Amino acid sequence: MTAVPMIEMNGVTKSFGSKTVLQGIDLKVEKGKSLVIIGGSGTGKSVTLKCILGLLSPDNGSIKIDGKEVTNLGSKERKKVLTKFGMLFQGAALFDSLPVWTNVAFGLIQGKGMNKSEAKEIAIEKLRRVGLTPDVGDLSPAELSGGMQKRVGLARAIATEPEIIFFDEPTTGLDPIMADVINDLIVECVQDLGATTLSITHDMASARKIADRIAMIYQGKIIWEGDKTEIDTSNNEYVDQFIHGRAHGPIEMQLLKP
Amino acid sequence: MSNPLAIIGRVFLNSLAEIGRLSRFAGVAISHIVTPPIYWRSMLQQMWLIGYNSLPVVGLTALFTGAALAQQIFVGGSRFNAESVVPGVVVIAIVRELGPVLGGLMVAGRVSSAMAAELGTMRVTEQIDALTTLSTDPINYLVVPRLIAAIVTLPLLVLVANTIGVLGGFLIGTERLGLNAGTYLQVTADFLEQSDVISSLVKAAVFGFIIALMGSYHGYNSRGGAQGVGKATTNAVVSAFILILLANLIITVIVFGGQS
Questions:
Q1: pLDDT recorded at residue B104
Q2: With an 8 Å Cβ cutoff, is B221 touching chain A?
Q3: What percentage of chain B carries pLDDT values higher than 70?
Q4: Backbone φ, ψ for residue A85 (5° rounding)
């Protein structure tokens, strides 16, 4: 008997007006594993994540979290499912009206109803976990550099010790060294928690570092999936073009033509 | 290509779709008012931002308008030797129409735009999505406090505006136009009826709802980066202005239309 996958999507489609973004996504993430979805801009990576979170509702198909169907959930049940999730956003998406520690403690205070002093202790502990000193907690997010904001975003994502963590382009906009630091932190934090993770990125260095398995999305479909060790020997010309960053190949960029 | 009928059709359909989206947003927001949790802290903060911070601009608007009104009515009334109508007409005009409408418009200019810009920025930087992933309903956390704060605060602001507006008329009337101060206040009190004050406050509450709804709706649904937020801000103010004037007309016709 095989274990129930933590995340399972079958035939998920989503269109915006006449534009079809997802053309039937099938993917599975086993419990405690890390899947990284790679793919170019505008191929449907973000939409996939948003469908799983319920920020967008898919047109067709099924999405199961821990074996439970989550499409068309009521708001109460949706909220319950969302307590299993943590997410690191591309631009960190910190609440700029709140100090850093309140950002980190937000899910604990608002989501879980923890009292403030207890939540603050945990927040400071999580900040330390991502390499930030407690005094950073009193700063406002606008005072932080991009790399520090990503760390705070990571601290916020792991603060509630979620079972599932999503990483949306975790290294975009960072220099290569800071990107590697963030990748290391992600790997460590995920190991600490034993969490299942789903990441989207177009940074291959990041994908190789944080993935157990890699899936490639192109034109709203998963066109290749395999172990991360297999990515260089996939014999898939789309994957090869992407991981080597070639301008020419089967993937035609949608450039404006006269 | 540019078939005029097609353009009319498209504009008509787009407006219907917009009205539909707005109604749905309003319905969702209203249903969340009665769904806990209520974020009291953020509601009090909004009351402070909307109410207290709007006092100077609303007060000055009322003062100048009341004063100018008294001057004009004096000039008009003196043709018929009816200078004594000044206090009565000023108080009726201020309390029934100008206090709530001008107050509402000034607050809309300040507040709808600020709300749309703040929520719009939160939308395009994914802060609203982040709220959802932290098990917090963004409508409850962001929209409901703004709606309640505006509905509660606007009547208080309009009460202040009405008082200052009448005071503006009083100052011009007694200092410049030579009207007797005691008589002025007496006539003001005689003309003012309870129904005037109630309709004024009802208008204010409705305008408060419109102001917060337009700011929230356009901000919450903005997209496309800085330009999108700019557009949301403009749309919030323009639509709040138009809806305030429309709602004012409707309430005036309902409340005062039967009187002759």
A1: 95
A2: no
A3: 99
A4: -105, 150
Closest in B126, B132, B141 to A91, CB measured: B126
Taken in order B200, B201, B203, B208, the sign of the CA dihedral is: positive
Condensed to tens digits (0 to 9), the pLDDT of residues A148-186 reads: 888 899 889 888 888 899 999 888 888 888 888 888 888
Place of tokens 């997209």: B223
CA–CA gap between residue B60 and residue B40 (Å, rounded)? 30
Per-residue pLDDT of A10-54, as tens digits, reads 888 888 888 888 888 888 888 888 899 988 877 888 888 888 888
How many contacts (CB atoms, under 8 Å) link A and B?
51
pLDDT in tens, B128-137: 999 988 888 8
What 3-state DSSP class applies to A65?
Answer: strand
Q: Counting runs of H as helices and runs of E as strands, what totals does chain A give?
A: 8, 10
Closest CA to A37 of A234, A220, A241, A251: A220
ipTM of the complex: 0.84
Say what the pTM is: 0.86
Evaluate whether B240 touches B150 at the Cβ level (below 8 Å): no
Q: Which residues of A touch B132 (CB under 8 A)?
A: 53-55, 82
CA distance B114 to B107: 10
Alpha helix (H) residue ranges in chain B: 4-33, 40-50, 55-78, 86-92, 99-107, 113-124, 127-133, 138, 144-175, 181-191, 194-220, 225-256
Residue A84 is classified by DSSP as T
Given the structure tokens 């208080």, which residue do they identify? B156
> In A, which residues are within 8 Å of B129 by CB distance?
50, 53, 55, 89, 93
Q: Is B109 in contact with B237 (CB distance < 8 Å)?
A: yes
| pLDDT tens column, B12-47 | 999 999 899 999 999 999 998 888 888 898 999 999
| DSSP tag of B110 | I
Residue with tokens 């963030």: A182
**Residues in chain A closer than 8 A to B141 (CB atoms):** 110
